[in-house]
Design goal:
Helices cover 51% and strands 16% of the residues. The chain is an alpha+beta fold. The protein has one domain. It has a two-stranded parallel ribbon. The longest helix is centred in the C-terminal third of the chain and has 17 residues. The protein starts with 6 loop residues before the first strand and ends with a helix.
C-alpha cells in the first residue's frame, strides 16, 4: 500500500545536500523549504509563528496545505 508522502526542509541552505539527494533518488517531492534565517529563529524562540510576522509565508503554508491535500487525493 502506497502512503502519500513529501518533505518539508527546515533550515534549508545550511549543511550538505543529502536530504535533497535522498529525496531525488527515492522520488520524494520536496513540498516546502524553510530557509535558515535569524528572524525566523528569533520568532520561534519567542513562541511566535513566523508567518504572523512574515506574511508572505502565509501563502506558502496555504500552498503546502493544498499540496498535502492533493497528495492524499482530496
Amino acid at each position: 500500500m502506497e502512503i502519500p508522502h513529501g518533505v518539508v526542509v527546515n533550515r534549508a541552505g545550511i549543511g550538505d545536500k543529502k536530504v535533497y539527494e535522498y529525496c531525488e533518488e527515492k522520488g520524494i517531492p520536496i513540498l516546502l523549504e524553510i530557509p535558515y534565517k535569524r528572524k525566523i529563529a528569533e520568532l520561534y524562540s519567542k513562541g511566535i509563528p513566523f508567518s504572523l510576522e512574515m506574511p508572505d509565508w502565509t501563502n506558502k503554508f496555504q500552498k503546502l496545505f493544498e499540496d498535502v491535500k492533493r497528495l492524499r487525493g482530496n
